[in-house]
């Protein structure tokens, strides 16, 4: 598995044991694909004995939803962003275990106990007051210092500069997400 190949619910277990060494060889594991089927492949791998659970998020060269080509290096930028955000606001970021450039895979802590914000908002559920405070802290302490707005305003050069890719982000946002969503909503 040195070159990119798509993982599945069986190979992801082998990958985490043999290549990443995040589980023991004899540890019984369960794996499920939990992605939404749009862009990336997302797996949850859980030990049946310890309960330890790890998320593996893998990028592919094609969008899952449409089969259109997509820059596979997006996972590397996401891994860099996670590392930077963890340095700035560790209380808000899942533990980052590893990034595998050849497989375009990120291995991180499973934070499913936190729930899914998108689903909560879509269901119209009220969020705790602490959510607004935490979101504001994260935006101010991690997102803003790594944004184009910060650098355009004369912010110091730093680690965030390597992650900020305005053209790539804009192109992905405009063609990969919003256009697909809008096309699906048309009668």
UniProtKB/TrEMBL annotation:
<comment type="similarity">
    <text>Belongs to the methylthioribose kinase family.</text>
</comment>
<dbReference type="GO" id="GO:0016301">
    <property type="term" value="F:kinase activity"/>
</dbReference>
<protein>
    <submittedName>
        <fullName>Putative S-methyl-5-thioribose kinase</fullName>
    </submittedName>
</protein>
<keyword id="KW-0067">ATP-binding</keyword>
<keyword id="KW-0808">Transferase</keyword>
<keyword id="KW-0418">Kinase</keyword>
<dbReference type="InterPro" id="IPR011009">
    <property type="entry name" value="Kinase-like_dom_sf"/>
</dbReference>
<keyword id="KW-0547">Nucleotide-binding</keyword>
<dbReference type="GO" id="GO:0005524">
    <property type="term" value="F:ATP binding"/>
</dbReference>
